[in-house]
Input
Amino acid sequence: MCWNMFAEKDPPPAADSDTEPPVMVSSSSHTSRLKYVSLGVLVLQTTSLVLTMRYSRTLKEDGPRYLASSAVVSAEVLKIITCTFLVLMENNYNMRAMNQLLKEEIVNKPVETLKLAVPAGIYTLQNNLLYVALSNLDAATYQVTYQLKILTTALFSVSMLGKRLGLYQWLSLLLLMAGVTLVQWPSDSGGDAEEKALSAGSQFVGLMAVLMACVSSGFAGVYFEKILKETKQSVWVRNIQLGLFSFVLGFIGMMVYDGQSLRQSGMFQGYSTVTCIVVALQAVGGLVVAVVIKYADNILKGFATSLSIILSTLISYFMLKDFSPTGLFFLGALLVIAATFLYGYERKPASSSSAIKL
Output
């Protein structure tokens, strides 16, 4: 792409071969730095969210534990505020221009806005399920199992968008299923029969929550992609629309399922510094990744996933002390990491090398 760009700007007779390479090197080094920054941000966001959420759900406190439904609603409010500020920045801090834009895109286009009610509802369900999953599974097991969203996203992409998967991608999905199966394989642990039964029951609840989250993530992601392809709109405006629906649906769900607890202790019961960090990471983290992801290719995303799994395993074992790895876990995690790289592998045509030489 860089060579084509220079060719359009300078006609062949005036091209100076001595000046092109430094520009190319500078551009290449800048892109390389952005990729490494992207890698760091992806690993940090993914790992920190999972670990802090797990820690907050297992932390023993004197008072009542915070409500997961309340944390989801709070995150949506923070996301709406953040996206509104970003839209204001795009409009050079002109409040009138921002209000006009939001009115035109949200109020004056009710049909387009209502289309986002479906993914918003699914994302709200998914966020609640993640709290359930991390209340019952350690961070490492959760991280590996949640990679099944690659499988669900691929299947929904084939059925809804008509995408075609290559041989390597189908092989990676088989590896992925095999790896997750090994990670979830029951192991003989110490303790009496009652403790084993409680542990198995908790792991089953966590597994079901992760599987449902994977399905909802795959469908909502593909559905949202389909909407984005049909209309041209700022990603921040889209996130405001999603956030508004998610807030309403999340608030209704909170009142229905946790109404009694809300009446007794209020919406922010059990909130602590850790809870606020979880809410902030869930709200802002996804937006940061949305900005960074355009600099990350498939290989880089594979590295980010792998490093995140490794970090979650180490911290769960040495710091949270809620995880005892087995040989099956390591084998399964290795298969999942390999599947992540294989799914993102793009086979380059043989003619590309000769084109570069010319």
User: Anything to note?
Assistant: The radius of gyration is 23 Å. Residues 44-344 form one domain. Confidence is low (pLDDT under 50) at residues 1-25, 349-358.
